[in-house]
Design goal:
Strand content: 5-15%
Number of domains: 2
Number of strands: 10
Helix content: 40-55%
Structural class: alpha/beta
Oligomer: single chain
Radius of gyration: 22 Å
Shape: globular
Order of helices and strands: HEEHHEHHEEEEHHEHEE
Strand order of the largest sheet: 2-1-3
């Protein structure tokens, strides 16, 4: 499979050769929520590797070969520098299918669809102040809460971390993605915004503890240095408290 990417590119490039050599184009990805982020080749590589593993056809050389083909084609096809996340997924599916890895393409498609369905099923209850258990109303098999019901959106977490806590967009999306993964795994239909924010705090805590562990010199602890605008660390509990409301 050493020539896989060349075979793919030779098949697809005739439709966009007139665009010229655009291998140096820096792509930006338009997400489903309308936000943008920098295109990362490593994310495409990881997605392909996971699809091949789920399809029981993983080989060591394949992910890099396929990812290189996808990235090169996207840069030459989308000369304006903008590509949507759905277009990237579709491109990966086509590469896998056209090279005979139909099971991997099917696994990726099913994963993408199932994730969209799970997102649409989750609703967030935004309640003023602390949760009031006495305001819960049990009606049949459904549990309803007083407050505003909103569809689940990872972008809300990202926006709050960026605007209220001045965290970088890439870091905020990483935290939001980790929290979303936990929420979807819970398999629940409704979740309080206060619980979502507790998950955010927990994720920040784990990241901070990992940073401190890496920065700790051999044989002793290193003094903690924290930017007060972004977070506060309690020396007694090492708990990260982000100065914002959910």
């Amino acid at each position: 499979m050493l020539e896989t990417n060349k075979l793919i590119l030779n098949k697809w490039f005739p439709v966009c050769r007139e665009a010229g050599n655009c291998d140096t184009v820096q792509l930006r990805v338009e997400k489903a929520d309308g936000s943008y982020e920098v295109y990362l080749h490593t994310k495409v590589l990881g997605t392909i590797a996971a699809a091949l593993a789920d399809g029981d056809c993983y080989q060591e050389c394949l992910p890099e070969e396929f990812a290189e083909a996808v990235t090169t084609f996207l840069r030459r096809r989308y000369t304006n520098g903008i590509v949507t996340s759905s277009e990237i997924y579709s491109m990966i599916e086509v590469v896998l299918s056209d090279t005979g890895y139909d099971q991997a393409a099917l696994a990726l498609h099913e994963h993408h669809i199932n994730r969209q369905i799970k997102r649409r099923r989750v609703e967030v209850i935004r309640c003023p102040g602390m949760p009031q258990e006495e305001s819960d109303i049990l009606e049949g098999d459904e549990l309803f809460f007083e407050g505003t019901v909103q569809p689940w959106s990872k972008s809300v977490i990202v926006r709050d971390l960026e605007r209220e806590n001045h965290l970088a967009h890439s870091f905020s999306r990483a935290v939001g993605g980790a929290v979303e993964e936990k929420v979807l795994r819970l398999g629940i239909r409704r979740i309080r915004s206060s619980l979502v924010w507790e998950l955010v705090l927990n994720e920040l805590l784990m990241i901070r503890q990992a940073e401190l562990a890496l920065a700790e010199p051999p044989g002793g602890k290193k003094e903690q240095k924290v930017d007060g605008k972004a977070e506060r660390i309690s020396p007694s509990t090492e708990y990260v408290a982000v100065a914002a409301e959910a």
